[in-house]
Recover the amino acids of this structure.
């Protein structure tokens, strides 16, 4: 008998793929998450047996819970508790007349809930740590008002209001499909479910709104519409994605200036008002029978045939394949020109809100493609709601500070009304609408005003974090590269913040408001989240709480900025005057006199010029903006948008996240090695060992470039010595002052000396080259004499 050699095998069944996703992609039936913003409140219905978990996200935030029976009678016994306080915080918030609470006021009125003498459960204390939880059980059906009370924060104070997150477990989930739908945006006219692998058509009047929701998440829907009045005349002109892409200059339309979809006659049909996803397709057709036939699935149900069925009787002839806007469909074109797709970005309840620009016949499918990742390998429903054109919905794009966060819709800053009177050219930036350029000036005129006179610009999206407590100094000393212990009260320092491997998380400024009080101002929400995580890891007695919504800020920059600020700001005797205010110092003052709007004024900026930043509560935004113009109009003051800001900061060698640095870039490679005092800072800090190693063994250097061509150069353009690529452009602009193209770039150390000749690669990097030479990093005022003047 012969011995048989069997191959070695791994015992047991195959292991499933391990895929890590944010929490909101894996919600379960009956599980809801609601975020109550600081200074906000939520009204919701509960049933007997519902379980509530309230989480103090950032710490120190009080929470008030008012329970009412279905008849509107206040009764904490609904939660098996006895009221322990008056709902004073909630009442004070409602008394302010804050517009964001209008819907709550209406809901309370409709349900007969009177908060005048309401008893409440008051949860959490000023020293409650971040992440603390409180659990409640509904013992009967009724209504709950849950508030995270807070009143306007003075700019020099740190009593910010922060979010409370509610996790609600329903005892008897009322499911629509697999997940509960979010509440309507208003009273709907149409409430239409598009069942999985089907399509539905519907009529919408001009001016009305169309909300298209992904019920379970990761489900695509093809959308098409026709001018109903053309259909009445027998003209079948569908929404044309090629025309729309050409007119809008975008792969697909988005809220803002580039928001419309057209038919082939250039008639605008719909505009995008809100979008919580930000990833769609306007290139591929709706799936059709031929697609499935060709990949071996003959007879497979498809969106085009479903369109034909749904449009019967609407005056629309059937087509073998339909052009459409493929909402939630995640496509891209790779480096080889191949149209590729992957799972959608949409999560349960995500939506797109259109506005009908003429009477429309519309059709939506719930795509049946189960042969690719296009629908996340799971088919589900789509839901359509329409609303009256009399409703008011602001233009907005969803912004998620972290992957697990609930979406935040684009906001307007405290200065938006005044700015909108001067320009309609706004862009979304970090969750806010900011002006890109002012219609009556243009970017070059704004640039020259900054260099020669003065400009005012809105920088409110900067993220502000209040860091307080006995260990606040030790915490900031640990998380920042700068020596925080040397910082005096009233002083500001610019610093980097790094991971353990030396890569940058963010850059920003740290204000010292007191011995144990700091304010971190950076570009990204995650910076503050990360600081709090470090405090929790070490068990430090320090709170890290967001104040971005409590502090909006204008920058007044340019040679005349001191005179403008001096005219408008009053300071108390114990505070520095504007004349006395040194570079990277701040003072506390008021606008116009001792009874004016309170502000914090810092001598900081992002332009390379003498400049100041003025921080105020949003309620005082109009007063502050008007005061700047009142005192600056005769000094050549101009408004400045983001386009001109980019020009002056590049010229001054100032860096921008996502362009000039990332988490793969250390401060030395970003040109801010001065923020890492390895010799003089004797305390350890995060990333120190890695930064020592990277400084001793550098591979790349951040440099300036002058380009001997007027051809536009952009972020990511390759830099060559001969055929070899030795670096890349990070930021570039055409300098009006120097009369040439200049750039910031990161290059291999072997080719980083001043005077080295390089070539900028265009097209494929080889067919077209632009001569360039390395120059010092700051093209304008390299010794920073102007901001220090």
């Amino acid at each position: 008998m012969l011995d048989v050699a069997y191959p070695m095998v791994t015992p047991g069944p195959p292991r499933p793929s391990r895929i890590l996703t944010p929490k909101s992609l894996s919600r379960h039936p009956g599980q809801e998450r609601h975020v109550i913003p600081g200074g906000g409140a939520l009204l919701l219905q509960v049933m007997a047996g519902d379980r509530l978990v309230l989480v103090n996200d950032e710490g120190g935030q009080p929470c008030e819970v008012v329970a009412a029976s279905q008849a509107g009678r206040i009764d904490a016994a609904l939660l098996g508790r006895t009221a322990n306080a008056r709902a004073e915080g909630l009442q004070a918030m409602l008394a302010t007349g804050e517009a964001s609470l209008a819907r709550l006021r209406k809901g309370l009125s409709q349900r007969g809930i009177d908060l005048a003498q309401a008893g409440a459960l008051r949860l959490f204390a000023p020293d409650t740590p971040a992440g603390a939880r409180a659990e409640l059980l509904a013992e009967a059906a009724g209504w709950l008002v849950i508030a995270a009370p807070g009143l306007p924060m003075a700019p020099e104070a740190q009593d910010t209001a922060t979010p409370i997150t509610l996790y609600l477990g329903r005892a008897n989930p009322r499911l629509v499909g697999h997940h509960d739908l979010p509440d309507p945006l208003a009273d709907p006219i149409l409430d239409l479910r598009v069942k999985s692998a089907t399509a539905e058509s519907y009529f919408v009047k001009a001016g009305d709104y169309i909300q298209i929701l992904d019920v379970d998440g990761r489900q695509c829907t093809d959308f098409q519409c026709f001018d109903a009045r053309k259909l009445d005349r027998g003209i079948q002109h569908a929404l044309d994605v090629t025309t729309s892409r050409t007119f809008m200059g975008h792969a697909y339309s988005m809220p803002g200036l580039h928001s419309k979809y057209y038919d082939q006659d250039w008639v605008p049909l719909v505009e995008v008002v809100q979008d919580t996803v930000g990833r769609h397709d306007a290139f591929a057709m709706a799936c059709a029978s031929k697609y499935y036939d060709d990949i071996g699935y003959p007879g497979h149900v498809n969106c085009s045939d479903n369109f034909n069925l749904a449009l019967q009787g609407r005056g629309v002839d059937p087509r073998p394949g339909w052009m459409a806007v493929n909402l939630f469909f995640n496509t891209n074109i790779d480096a080889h020109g191949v149209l590729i797709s992957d799972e959608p970005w949409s999560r349960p309840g995500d939506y797109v809100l259109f506005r009908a620009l003429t009477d429309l016949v519309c059709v939506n499918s719930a795509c049946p493609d189960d042969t690719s990742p296009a629908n996340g390998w799971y088919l589900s429903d789509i839901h359509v709601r329409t609303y009256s054109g009399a409703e008011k919905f602001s233009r907005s794009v969803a912004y998620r500070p972290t992957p697990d966060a609930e979406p935040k819709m684009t906001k307007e800053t405290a200065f938006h009304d005044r700015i909108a009177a001067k320009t309609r050219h706004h862009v979304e930036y970090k969750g806010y609408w900011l002006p890109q350029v002012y219609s009556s000036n243009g970017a070059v005129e704004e640039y020259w005003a900054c260099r020669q006179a003065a400009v005012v610009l809105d920088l409110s999206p900067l993220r502000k974090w209040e860091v307080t407590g006995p260990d606040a100094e030790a915490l900031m000393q640990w998380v920042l590269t700068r020596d925080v212990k040397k910082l005096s009260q009233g002083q500001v320092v610019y610093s980097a913040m790094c991971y353990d491997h030396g890569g940058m998380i963010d850059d920003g400024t740290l204000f010292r408001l007191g011995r144990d009080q700091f304010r971190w101002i950076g570009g990204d929400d995650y910076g503050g989240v990360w600081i709090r995580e470090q405090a929790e890891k070490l068990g430090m007695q320090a709170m890290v709480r967001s104040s971005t919504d409590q502090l909006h800020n204008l920058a007044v920059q340019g040679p005349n900025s001191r005179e403008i600020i001096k005219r408008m700001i009053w300071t108390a005797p114990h505070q520095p005057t504007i004349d006395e205010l040194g570079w990277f110092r701040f003072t506390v003052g008021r606008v116009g006199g001792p009874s004016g709007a309170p502000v914090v004024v810092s001598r900081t900026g992002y332009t390379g010029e003498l400049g100041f930043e003025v921080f105020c509560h949003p309620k005082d935004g109009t007063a502050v903006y008007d005061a700047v113009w009142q005192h600056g109009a005769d000094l050549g003051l101009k408004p400045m948008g983001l386009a001109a800001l980019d020009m002056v900061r590049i010229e001054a060698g100032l860096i921008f996240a996502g362009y000039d640095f990332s988490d793969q870039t250390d401060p030395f490679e970003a040109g801010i090695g001065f923020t890492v005092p390895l010799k003089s800072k004797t305390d350890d800090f995060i990333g120190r060992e890695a930064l020592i190693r990277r400084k001793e063994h550098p591979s790349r250097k951040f440099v300036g470039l002058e380009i001997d061509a007027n051809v536009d150069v952009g972020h990511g353009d390759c830099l060559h010595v001969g055929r070899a690529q030795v670096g890349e452009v990070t930021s570039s602009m055409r300098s009006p002052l120097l009369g040439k193209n200049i750039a910031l770039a990161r290059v291999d150390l072997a080719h980083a000396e001043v005077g080295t000749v390089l070539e900028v690669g265009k097209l494929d990097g080889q067919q077209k080259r632009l001569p360039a030479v390395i120059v010092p990093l700051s093209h304008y005022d390299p010794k920073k004499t102007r901001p220090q003047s």
Observations:
- The chain has a mean pLDDT of 94.
- The chain has 15 helices and 44 strands.
